[in-house]
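Sharing a chain and its predicted structure for anyone who wants a worked example. Both blocks are below, sequence first, tokens second.
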Amino acid sequence: MSEKAKITKAFSVVGLATLFSRILGFIREVVIAYFYGAGLATDAFFVAFQLPNTFRRLLGEGSLTVSFIPVFSQTLIQKGREEALRLANSAFTALSIVLVALSSIGVACAPVLVPLMVPGPGFSDVPGKIELTVLLTRVMFPYIFFISLMALCMGILNALRHFFAPAIAPAFLSVCEILGVVLFYYYVDPPILALAIGVMVGGVIQLGFQIPFLEQKGVHLRWKPDFRNPGLLQVGRLMLPAVFGSAIYQIGLLINNFLASFLSQASVSYLNYASRILEFPLGIFVFSIGSVVLPSLSRLAASQEHDTLKKTYIFAFRLAMFVIIPAMIGLIVLRVPITHILFQRGSFTPEATQQTAWALLFYAVGLWAIAGVRVTVPVFYALHDTQTPVKIGAVSMLANVLFSLMLMWPLRHGGLALALSLSSMMNLVFLLILLRKKLGPLGMRKAFESAGRVLTASLVMGIFCWLVSSRIDWLSSGATLAKILYLSTAIGGGALVFGILAFVLRCPELGFLRELYEKKRGKKD
């Protein structure tokens, strides 16, 4: 089976698992919006959760996974399975020690960290808001221990070409959060604490779910200190700049919250709800492609097959654009209907729908660039180059800050979302320029030509979606079944319009997916 076929097959598995997880994630957001709305409690929760989530992304999939998979794959190919498993145990031991220390420090220092993160009047001038955020931070900070170890398990399983268990794991977090709210909302004080308890239980279950699959692959993680393991030292060398690279993005998110605290109350919540919607297409399509392509790229880099590596990357880039561009147009056109159907009930008001859709508009504009960055960065990691993405990311972060300061007053929280989109575009352009210098011509012309066809089909699809959705008032209450029908028709009909036009315009990605499906069906027959 070719690398393209392997990537597409793995992508379908991860995509379906992620789709299920994202659906549960949306149900979780609906539950949160219904019980808590957008205000003091949700602002406090989102900021509190961002602290452990930031460190998770720094030490988890943000740096450990992308540093570990290339080294583990290289060790597996060049030194054999036994040495690779020794590396896995060394990484498990070292990471556990770091995470215990970090969790303890986070819990102890929460009263200092929280006021530094959100010093604006949207937090400091609201009685009890800082104190609530500190309490939630202390409850949820140990989440980093379980979820970062889960990220290590994900790296091992992905390197061994098992993608289902890591992809489905986030579903357990959503289930636990939903159950936490439903079961404990009326029995804990403050009620938002029920959500924090769900986060902690979800972290434990996500990690525990990986263990049987690791055992099935013959990986038995044990406490075996071996801090001089050559592979572990190599992971450490790659991880250090990767941590800084992940930190740049996370710092950008923290800056957004920092600046949003100077805007009206609930601005943090509007941005968070909008980003949750944005993460749906990103998680199902782009993050799935990124997670399955890194092991393939790592093996090709370890085998010095650079021509095949470039072709594999271009294929992944084109596949990402094929699915993310229509998603981007769909989100822009249907931002209000989607927000209304998902969130507008209970404590979530029509005003909250408008403000969340405002942020979603500007986030969606940069969706293609965020996707491109997510697919391009793994090429550098596969080549054991974690420094270049860091340098480019640092420039992009500075640009994000400047854009935010320029746009936050005229566009409010929408300006913060637009700043992230603009800086992501800059990030992608610089990455492509430097990747070309590193590997030579990449063949991006065909990728851009294909993206142009996809954009044409997507714009026509967008017109269809607008014609359908504009026939009903989305901010008024009632007529829920009619609204669901209109939105379903807009999305389903839009997908059909896009598919027909993609076929007429001869988009090659559609042909490859069809060819793979026919081969798979032929084997079954």
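Comments welcome. Residues 519-525 have pLDDT under 50 and may be disordered.
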